[in-house]
Design brief:
This protein is mainly α. It is built from 10 helices and no strands. The protein has one domain. It is a multi-pass membrane protein. This is Sugar phosphate transporter domain-containing protein.
Length: 245
């Protein structure tokens, strides 16, 4: 589908390794947070990713957005602060892990943007995923075997009880692959910050679906916070359109 590219330098390999490690950290922290927080609140916190992305993009690439773009991130963050105060199922450790996952997701977006667009180190999306995936396995597999006792035996036991879990895992893995691939493509053709703001539209849908499926309680204050965050996302999109004209 695409021409094969090789890793050109140790520096490039180090960046891909760092990207894999950050990716693992974001996924693990996000999964841990879901043990303590409802999906709706998790997605609301995740909506602050553009804020972290803007900070990391400025630190790592000295890339500034228009001042109006930064202003539109204020309601995004403020909405999450309000939602946190009004969340009936708030859990401090889960919240810390969720914020950590959000920051790691933002850092990953900026770093993958560098690898996909910088001169001399540019990789296409498929090749970046090709090199990143096995490095992620090297990080995750030993950690899983050490930290989760008898994880293979438990998975096999669950499969014997209901084989559908294997199909769930395969389907989930396939979705994760396409999510990463499309993430890389969006980052390459737009920017890391735009990727994260677009992701918040997904977050708004996830909040509604989560509440309807899991029936987790949501306060009026929490809903006001979620709404403010979505409004911030819309304002950001308009600000980016104006800055690109």
């Amino acid at each position: 589908m695409v021409p094969m590219q090789t890793i050109r330098s140790r520096v490039q390999f180090f960046k891909i390794t760092a990207l894999s490690l950050i990716f693992c950290a974001s996924v693990v922290s996000g999964n841990v947070s879901l043990r303590y927080l409802p999906v709706s609140f998790n997605q609301a916190v995740g909506a602050t990713t553009p804020f972290f992305t803007a900070v990391f993009a400025y630190i790592m690439t000295v890339k500034r957005e228009a001042w109006l773009t930064y202003i539109t991130l204020v309601p995004v963050v403020t909405g999450v602060v309000i939602a946190s105060g009004g969340e009936p199922s708030f859990h401090l450790f889960g919240f810390i892990m969720c914020v950590g996952a959000t920051a790691a997701r933002a850092l990953k977006s900026v770093l993958q943007g560098i690898l996909l667009s910088s001169e001399g180190e540019k990789l296409n999306s498929m090749n970046l995923l090709l090199y990143m995936a096995p490095i992620a396995v090297v990080f995750l597999l030993p950690a899983t075997l050490l930290m989760e006792e008898n994880v293979v035996g438990i998975t096999l036991a669950l499969a014997r009880e209901d084989f559908k879990i294997i199909w769930y895992l395969l389907f989930n893995s396939s979705l994760a692959y396409f999510v990463n691939l499309t993430n890389f493509l969006v980052t390459k053709h737009t920017s890391a910050l735009t990727l994260q703001v677009l992701g918040n539209a997904k977050g708004a849908v996830a909040v509604v679906v989560s509440i309807s499926i899991f029936r987790n309680p949501v306060s009026v204050t929490g809903m006001l916070g979620y709404t403010l965050t979505v409004i911030g996302v819309i304002l950001y999109s308009e600000a980016k359109k104006r800055s690109n004209k």
